[in-house]
Design goal:
With 328 residues, this protein is of the alpha+beta class. It is 18% helix and 38% strand. The strands form 2 sheets. A 9-stranded antiparallel β-sheet has the order 9-10-11-12-13-14-15-16-17. Strands 1-2-3-4-5-6-7-8 form an 8-stranded antiparallel barrel. The chain starts with 7 loop residues before the first helix and ends with a strand. This is DUF4738 domain-containing protein.
């Protein structure tokens, strides 16, 4: 989690704000193999339908869907925002069967699969260690083996980033615009999985809690098209989920309140921010707290001479429909 360094006032206000397919048993004798084939044949007859196995049949293929983007770029040379990249990859589905790897609507190739150690793949221990750290920050264990999928035929290679597809810790990884893009098994993901493991912070929530070192957690998905993944999840209001997303990646950073119902955004409001007039000089900021009755109190202060003076006080609450309304 990035924090703005060198701002004394901020320090007081916002501290630390493969899958590999299993190989058949080579020791299985011919009699056992024949028995299995007979069983399969009988099963097909009972079903009364001749089943045709196709390379494009997802019943016979593993498939992955877009999961998330790495929290930061690899070397800081990205040219696109994470939102732009997410929009580009969010509807992509990847399937892998016994022969082919298919990126729906983009390309398909008959693959050659190899397993490599991280050191062999990244060509140095230092680089492998660096990537291990990046993967860990994104909840992925690099381990001792990387599965690499490449086109078997040099003249049938897909365009970047699909020329080489990796599986690490049962997650598909491709590199795009200096970011790592992750895909998870499609049959393990549904619309609500993003929130299942999120931690709830009980009310009241004070400035001390907000500025705490260990209170902010990391989401595994994007909420309301916000790039940041740092969050506080508040107790639900009936069917309404309530999140505060902290954006700590820029000099002017914000806290954004999000309410969701059936995983759709109902309300979005910036409830805390810091503005800088010049480098490392704070000109205005908003603090907030939430009491035990779910009333939000916002206090906006602006610099007047050497001091900060309150210029605006605001109170609001969230109703049962997830909408924000003024609190008396």
């Amino acid at each position: 989690m990035k924090r703005i360094l060198g701002i004394t006032f901020l320090a007081l206000l916002f501290i630390n704000c493969k899958e590999n397919k299993k190989q058949s048993d080579n020791n299985k004798d011919l009699d056992s193999l024949s028995t299995e084939l007979v069983k399969d044949s009988l099963n097909e007859s009972v079903a009364g339908t001749k089943k045709v196995i196709s390379n494009n049949d997802n019943n016979s293929a593993d498939y992955w869907i877009f999961y998330k983007i790495s929290e930061s770029s690899i070397s800081g040379t990205a040219t696109k925002t994470k939102t732009e990249i997410a929009d580009q990859f969010k509807n992509i589905k990847i399937s892998i069967d016994d022969k082919k790897l298919k990126v729906d609507g983009i390309c398909t190739f008959e693959y050659y699969k190899s397993n490599k150690t991280p050191v062999k793949y990244y060509e140095s221990s230092k680089t492998a260690k660096s990537y291990e750290s990046i993967f860990l920050k994104n909840g992925i264990k690099l381990g001792n083996e990387i599965t690499v999928y490449q086109s078997m035929y040099p003249d049938k290679v897909c365009e970047l980033p699909w020329d080489e597809v990796l599986i690490i810790d049962n997650v598909i990884v491709v590199v795009y615009d200096d970011y790592l893009v992750f895909f998870k098994k499609g049959n393990n993901i549904n619309e609500g999985d993003c929130y299942i493991q999120t931690k709830i912070t009980n009310l009241p929530i004070t400035k001390k809690i907000i500025n705490g070192n260990n209170i902010w957690n990391q989401l595994d998905c994007t909420v309301a098209n916000l790039e940041s993944k740092d969050y506080l999840r508040l107790p639900d209001i009936k069917e309404i989920k309530v999140f505060i997303i902290g954006n700590f990646n820029y000099d002017d950073f914000t806290y954004t309140l999000i309410t969701l119902k059936n995983n759709k955004v109902i309300s979005k409001k910036d409830i805390g921010f810091v503005k800088e007039s010049t480098e490392n000089t704070v000109s205005e900021f908003t603090e907030f707290e939430i009491d035990k009755d779910y009333v939000f109190s916002l206090n906006t202060k602006s610099k007047k001479g050497d001091d900060f003076k309150t210029i605006k006080l605001e109170k609001f609450k969230i109703n049962d429909d997830g909408l924000i309304e003024v609190a008396k």
